[in-house]
Amino acid sequence: MRLLVKAPAKINLSLDVLHKRPDGYHEVKMVMTTIDLADRVELMDLYSDTIQIISHNRFVPDDERNLAYQAAKLLKEKVGVRRGVAISITKYIPVAAGLAGGSSDAAATLRGLNKLWGLGLSLDELAEIGAEIGSDVPFCVYGGTAIATGRGEKIEHIPAPPPSWVILAKPTIGVSTAEVYRNLQLQSVNHPDVDGMVAAIREKDYEKICALAGNVLESVTLNMYPEVAQIKEQMRRFGADVSLMSGSGPTVFGLVQHDSRLQRVYNGLRGFCEHVYAVRLIGERHEQ
């Protein structure tokens, strides 16, 4: 038997870091929402009690370093399943981009295996398992739009933002999340108004959402990688209503509501950035 599961990317409409915790993690408060750029995760039963990762992307590990592999292994251990699975991952979300591609693949694996193996676990139970794999996995289990706190694993669902286009541009560089956090000077940064963003989303106020979008990690990444700052600036110049880095970068996203503006921004960015995508906000939660 086989099952196909979509694994959508996320963007951060607001991302704040509050302080460093005694356990070494940073306490965050952020607003995340899913977008219509998704990997395809296909799950296939195996006769042997093994986990196989199949991917034709050379940047995707095919062993226990892969978060989808870790998800399958942990789920098997938690529920005592002795069945094998082949996990085929077709990548559409760029790798190491600040869009939670690996975390979403892991979340899709948890949701899919729950169905494939008839486990009957709730999304809350799957999210709890996902939290052991990575901070973004619980959000990706639910999808939709949410406030994430703690190290990102505590999820409070909120309504979807108003419909809009999302333009994504990823420079051909890698950004180390650990290095970005290491260089973050919390006492000297402007903290975004996360609560204001939540209120704007609840009010479906697109202009206020654009005005309040903020990411505290930009203060580090834009200094370390001038290419990211350049894309952010060009995106606004071409007509995006807002441009913001997602996660720790390097992907920058812009929001536009009108198709004519979308084409202008998209075509402008294609001129000097190889990886450019135009997709819709989804913002709605996964079904059980």
Q: Could you explain the architecture of this structure?
A:
The protein is built from ten helices and eleven strands. It is of the alpha+beta class and 288 residues long. The chain folds into two domains: 2-157, 2-Layer Sandwich (Ribosomal Protein S5, domain 2), CATH 3.30.230.10; 165-280, GHMP kinase, C-terminal domain (Alpha-Beta Plaits, 2-Layer Sandwich). The strands form two sheets. Strands 1, 2, 3, 4, 5, 6 and 8 form a seven-stranded mixed sheet that branches. It has a four-stranded antiparallel sheet with strand order 9-10-7-11, covered by helices on one side. A hairpin with a 4-residue loop joins strand 5 (145-149) and strand 6 (154-157). Helix 1 packs parallel to helix 2 (101-116), helix 2 (101-116) crosses helix 3 and helix 8 (218-224) packs across helix 9 (226-238).
Question: Concise description?
Answer:
The chain has 288 residues and is α+β, with helices and mostly antiparallel strands. Helix content is 34%, strand content 29%. The strands form two sheets. Strands 1, 2, 3, 4, 5, 6 and 8 form a seven-stranded mixed sheet that branches. A four-stranded antiparallel sheet has the order 9-10-7-11, covered by helices on one side.
Strand-helix topology:
Elements: E1 2-20, E2 26-46, E3 51-54, H1 67-79, E4 84-90, H2 101-116, H3 123-130, H4 137-142, E5 145-149, E6 154-157, E7 165-170, H5 177-182, H6 194-202, H7 206-212, E8 214-215, H8 218-224, H9 226-238, E9 242-245, E10 252-256, H10 259-270, E11 275-280
Parallel strand pairs: 1-8, 3-4
Antiparallel strand pairs: 1-2, 2-4, 2-5, 5-6, 7-10, 7-11, 9-10
Helix pairs in contact: 1-2, 2-3, 6-7, 8-9, 9-10
Pathway: Isoprenoid biosynthesis; isopentenyl diphosphate biosynthesis via DXP pathway; isopentenyl diphosphate from 1-deoxy-D-xylulose 5-phosphate: step 3/6
GO molecular function: 4-(cytidine 5'-diphospho)-2-C-methyl-D-erythritol kinase activity; ATP binding
Enzyme class: transferase
